[in-house]
Design brief:
4-stranded antiparallel β-sheet
Length: 329
């Protein structure tokens, strides 16, 4: 038997006793300080991750027009519904454009739209559609270079100095704008200008006026979060620049496959007409006749001031945005 004072002790190679075995192990509560080189490396990793995320976001925005709308071509051009389901681009014809501060735009879309800038009319929508069509093949942040001749020809306007001036003034209006488009619950939206940057040179060696525009990259949000309509470009051109009510109706009803009846008064409000309702009613009937003539409508009736119409459906002109699928790739 071990001596009393030695009970409970375990000897391994001679000298360890129970007191030493039962003593708690002390652990340091403080970490060793990180070296500056470690902190620098960590910062670089974080910065690299942020750069990768930013590049992915830019690539996502850049691909949206090419990948989401495979049927978008020169004949069928994409326009976000919030831009053409209301009075952002109205039916005015006055050369003197009124300044509209913080205007609430009447619209049938599920968006609230506020606009500050000069009065936008149907010619401005045509110019914007022509420019966004040029931009769709490249990232939206890229510069879009073109000649004045190229733009005027695409618009179908008369080759005249007045048309060049008119197009240039339209681009300037589209640049000097402040537009806010948001969902009713304010969950998402876009705030910015319709054109980010614009520059020009008088002419090149062939006498062509050289222009450049650049869009806000985030304008892609308008294409990502809503149904976008493919508008028949040649039909719009054939309707003609002077038939502004018909052009507005063509864009508006292109967003509705099976249009519900609307009152003459409601259409008067939505297109932001300044005409008396009685005058507008006559203009409306003439415009609808023109849409039947150009094969966009099959028929229409105005009964008790309610407008009933039937679309002449062709190949798919409205496409549901596939942006959500892009995000999963």
């Amino acid at each position: 038997m071990l001596p009393k004072e030695r009970r409970g002790q375990v000897r391994i190679d001679g000298e360890t006793d129970s007191a030493a075995d039962e003593a708690p192990i002390k652990r340091s509560s403080s970490r060793l300080p990180r070296s500056k080189s470690y902190e620098d490396a960590l910062d670089k990793v974080k910065a690299r991750s942020a750069d990768v995320a930013a590049r992915k976001a830019v690539d996502y925005e850049a691909r949206i027009l090419q990948d989401s709308f495979p049927f978008w071509d020169d004949d069928n051009r994409g326009v976000p519904n919030p831009l053409i389901r209301g009075g952002l681009f109205g039916v005015g014809t006055s050369a003197k454009r009124e300044f509209l501060p913080n205007m609430a735009v009447a619209s049938l879309s599920n968006y609230e739209i506020t606009y500050t800038g000069q009065d936008l009319q149907q010619d401005d929508l045509s110019v914007w559609m022509s420019l966004i069509n040029l931009a769709r093949k490249n990232p939206l942040s890229d510069k879009v270079r073109f000649t004045g001749y190229q733009l005027i020809r695409d618009l179908g306007w008369r080759m005249h100095s007045e048309s060049y001036r008119r197009a240039q003034e339209s681009i300037e209006r589209l640049k000097v704008t402040a537009i806010k488009i948001s969902t009713k619950d304010q969950a998402e939206g876009y705030a910015g200008s319709l054109i980010r940057e614009y520059a020009w040179a008088d002419s090149d060696e062939h006498g062509n006026t050289k222009w450049m525009v650049r869009f806000e990259p985030r304008v892609s949000v308008l294409f990502m979060s809503d149904t976008t309509t493919l508008l028949e470009w040649e039909t719009r051109k054939k309707i003609g620049n002077r038939a502004v009510v018909a052009q507005w109706l063509h864009a508006f009803y292109a967003t509705h496959r099976d249009p519900l009846p609307l009152s003459v008064q409601k259409l008067h409000e939505l297109c932001r007409s300044n005409a008396q309702v009685s005058t507008f009613r006559r203009n409306l009937r003439n415009a609808l006749d023109k849409l039947v003539e150009h094969g966009f409508l099959r028929s229409f009736q105005i009964v008790n001031d309610q407008v009933y119409l039937v679309r002449a459906h062709k190949a798919s002109l409205s496409v549901v945005n596939e942006a959500s699928k892009l995000g999963s790739k």
